[in-house]
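Complex 231.
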Amino acid sequence: MKKITIAIDGYSSTGKSTVAKQLADYLGYVYVDSGAMYRAVTLYAMQRGIISKEHFDAQKLIASLPSIDLRFEKKSAWNKAHIYLNGKDVENEIRNLEVSEFVSPIATIHEVRVKLVAQQQKMGLEKGVVMDGRDIGTVVFPKAELKIFMNASANERAQRRYKELLDRGEVVEFKNVLKNIEDRDHIDTTREDSPLVKAADAIEIDNSEMNLDDQFHTVLQLAKDRIAGRV
Ligand code: CDP
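Predicted structure with cytidine-5'-diphosphate bound:
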């Protein structure tokens, strides 16, 4: 069967990665969480004191880029691939609120994006890939056969992320989670390089009122149509 490229972009905590993973599993495609790559670079910068609440040494980060090695590895066929930063599994660590607070400034750096986009494009060379992020349909795979743009209200997204963080055992306040989502929306949509924007040919899905099942079946139908060349 013909393999296609599926790009899923959208605001933070819109459930992109959930639907992308479901879709990849169903279709037997590779799922790539591009946000995990920006988060892993952020963790590297935090660990080396390159970024903190007080300062951000962008030049030092740019100079360090050749020493940042990112890989995805699957622990088992049905699990999500984990991201490895210089050989260490950091899948869990990159999800905390502190990384979320620094990731958007890191993602504005052109040289960071050049490095990560090149790696992402390599992973998609053979198609059969579902990738989620902010610039997948606009920059990474502008020719993707299916582009989805996901949205939901900021309050709904913050509720979802708050619950996720609590479930992981993090001690966080709702107002800080909401603020982080609003701050990231702002930085991600206004940055100069590859801002978050809906590609002209993307299909927008607002899932504020949708459950996971409805959302999956909506996207799956779109994917099946594209694979069959119906639309
Ligand atoms: O999961 P969540 O929606 O919170 O975000 P993510 O997909 O893990 O991405 C974290 C951050 O990385 C975003 O807020 C962007 O600043 C950046 N990012 C990006 O610039 N480009 C991408 N393709 C993916 C993420």
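The domain at 5-219 is CATH 3.40.50.300 (Rossmann fold).
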